[in-house]
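Hi R.,

As promised on Friday, here is the backbone we talked about, encoded as structure tokens. Could you run it through your design pipeline when you get a chance and send me back a sequence?
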């Protein structure tokens, strides 16, 4: 006998499935959010709770009838969108992955697109500190190349531009290798 899906369980009124789901991914979501987004740590549990509530409400309202990805991917995507709203609300400087990698069009929710974005963020964090700092200054803090050259001790703006290009290429290559596997 096949086990009912989480959507069927929620529609049948089984509250335990939502409680279990909440506990199952909470800590992992908080670690993931802390690693990939520049939001206060105190905000992450609230964002996760809102993501679980959105998931639950989407099922009850009929907006979510079938999952085309894992529950975890769906929850993390909702959480990601909520974090981006929080970042915008606080007027933080944020550059989306779509802007950094225009060749990766991140769509609604299919799992492979969500995973592309996760790979990009992970590989960004795997870069050498100098590259990570340079790309963070340019893409996240919107610092100009002259400012980057000064902050990072480059001999000229052209040297900073060359290094940014090299760092970006390293990131792009690492992402493409991971996505091919």
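Update: got your reply. Pasting your designed sequence below so it's all in one thread:
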């Amino acid at each position: 006998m096949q086990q009912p899906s989480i959507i069927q369980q929620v529609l049948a009124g089984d509250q335990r499935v939502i409680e279990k789901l909440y506990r199952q991914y909470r800590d992992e979501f908080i670690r993931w959010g802390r690693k990939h987004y520049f939001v206060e740590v105190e905000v992450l549990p609230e964002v996760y709770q809102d993501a679980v509530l959105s998931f639950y409400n989407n099922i009850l309202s009929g907006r979510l009838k079938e999952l085309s990805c894992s529950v975890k991917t769906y929850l993390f995507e909702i959480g990601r969108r909520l974090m981006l709203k929080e970042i915008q609300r606080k007027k933080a400087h944020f550059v989306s992955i779509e802007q950094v990698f225009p060749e990766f069009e991140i769509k609604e929710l299919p799992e492979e697109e969500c995973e592309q974005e996760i790979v990009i963020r992970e590989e960004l964090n795997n870069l050498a500190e100098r590259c990570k700092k340079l790309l963070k200054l340019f893409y996240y803090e919107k610092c100009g190349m002259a400012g980057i050259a000064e902050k990072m001790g480059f001999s000229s703006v052209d040297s900073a531009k060359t290094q940014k290009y090299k760092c970006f290429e390293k990131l792009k290559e690492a992402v493409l290798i991971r996505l091919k596997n």
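One thing I noticed while checking it: The longest helix spans residues 157-180.

Thanks again,
M.
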